[in-house]
Amino acid sequence: MGIAEAFKAVQARINSSALKAGRSPDSIKLVAVSKTIALQKIIEAVNAGVSIVGENKVQEAREKITELRERNTDLNIEWHLIGNLQKNKAKTAVHLFDVIHSLDSLSLAEELNKYSQRFNKRQRVLIQVKLSDEPTKYGVMEKYLMALLERLARMENLRPEGLMTMPPFYEDPEKTRPYFKNLREISVKTCEKGFPLKELSMGMSHDFEVAIEEGATMVRIGTAIFGERQVKK
Ligand SMILES: *Cc1c(COP(=O)(O)O)cnc(C)c1O
Q1: Nearest-5° Cα angle at 119, 202 to 156
Q2: Interval 91-132: pLDDT, tens
Q3: Nearest residue CA, atom 12 of ligand 1?
């Protein structure tokens, strides 16, 4: 199956899970995850209707975005950073990305705010929440979330729009459901405390339908659109 076809199939599945869950398909944004995928294929996806592209590494995104500019295409792409961000790359990240899904500490927020100020930008961010005890997963733990949100509220050049999570991998997507439900419950709580965060970035190729049932507003989908990656991340 080609990329255009695969994208359309994924979009159809998103629409039908939304309707099944009693939600508007328009309330769900598809982030096409293109890490390790060649630029030509990304262009193919965008021509097929993809409008948001997600990368997990700043350097890789920079190369692609630069090449795209050099080719002088008139493609209109919203770039999202979905992978972990190190502080020393905050400046480049602010320069490149429309939305950063992986804000997970106060010190990173301060860097992002500093450069956003410098570039006269209001940087859209999602806070990555860590919902499991896996040592390798990034994100803030729920108990520190409110404190972080209070600090973010005073950073004028950041715009916190939602929460993101990356649950442990299970073959069976039903096992992931409690994590998605948990993230939504956390967003309800932060809203009650005066911090409305409407975006929920959750769900990947093998479990996005469950994520949509649990309230995802952004699904991050790579393999189901571009096929298996050469380099496993
Ligand atoms: C790679 C990646 C995805 C997409 O994974 P697929 O299983 O290929 O859909 C989503 N989110 C993050 C943070 C990723 O790194």
Answers
A1: 65
A2: 999 999 999 999 999 999 999 999 999 999 999 999 999 998
A3: 82
